[in-house]
Design a protein that fits this description.
This protein is an all-alpha fold. 53% of the residues lie in helices and 0% in strands.
């Protein structure tokens, strides 16, 4: 992650509003929780034993908690078709406990099972880069970040995100990951919420309202 992006991420995570935004997102400040607060936990999670390597109907509902949908045709392709079978083969190559901050960069680079799975999902009817990433984040929440147009806009619309974030998480003796875990603890949200998800929520909350008000590029789109 270049210095500019790193400064944006660290600045937002270190802001006075970060803990409050997390608490509001999970409904811990008296108001209703955002629907996305159920993304990780719906049906026991997408990475639980028995379903970690297959897309389930619960996974397709879970991504709706993050304001994206999979078409009926696409859902059938993933639940009963060849794309779903091929995706399962790729997921079996990605350990459930793989953590972005701990794996080598090769596990997130071109040719890795994670990137091949993301590319495969993009061939499914109606699935673009945002939805593909959210489905993978549901299956491997510690390895793949939730990333959409709001966060991309906040960061200046960089051409890549996974590898730069991986570099940032490993820098300075994993200082950024420690920051994220500390934010999670201070906010009082479940430990089952990954450090990557904490990062996404803080960044998304920091720009979501401005993104709508300004109608930034990409507002309202599901795929690219």
């Amino acid at each position: 992650m270049d210095a500019g992006l790193r400064d944006i991420v660290r600045g937002r995570l270190g802001s006075e509003s970060a803990v409050g935004d997390l608490r509001r997102y999970f409904g811990l400040e008296g108001g209703a929780a955002y629907t996305g607060a159920r993304f990780e936990h719906l049906g026991g999670g997408g990475d639980r034993d028995g379903v970690a390597d297959v897309v389930t109907a619960e996974d397709l509902v879970a991504v709706q908690m993050l304001s994206v949908t999979v078409s009926a045709k696409g859902a059938l392709e993933l639940l009963e078709g060849e794309p779903g079978r091929r995706l399962s083969g790729l997921l079996r190559r990605i350990p459930v406990d793989a953590d972005m901050a701990d794996v080598d960069a090769a596990e997130l680079d071109t040719g890795s099972a994670a990137v091949l799975a993301w590319k495969l999902l993009r061939t499914v009817d109606g699935i673009g880069w945002v939805t593909a990433g959210k489905l993978l984040a549901r299956k491997r929440p510690r390895l793949v970040p939730v990333y959409d147009n709001v966060v991309k806009c906040l960061l200046g619309r960089p051409s890549a995100f996974w590898l730069p974030l991986h570099t940032a998480l490993r820098a300075d003796d994993h200082a950024l990951r420690h920051t994220l875990l500390d934010l999670r603890k201070r906010a009082g949200i479940p430990e089952t919420v990954s450090a990557l998800r904490v990062c996404d929520i803080v960044l998304w909350m920091a720009h979501e309202q401005d993104h709508k008000a300004r109608r930034c590029a990409g507002h309202g789109t599901i795929s690219v």
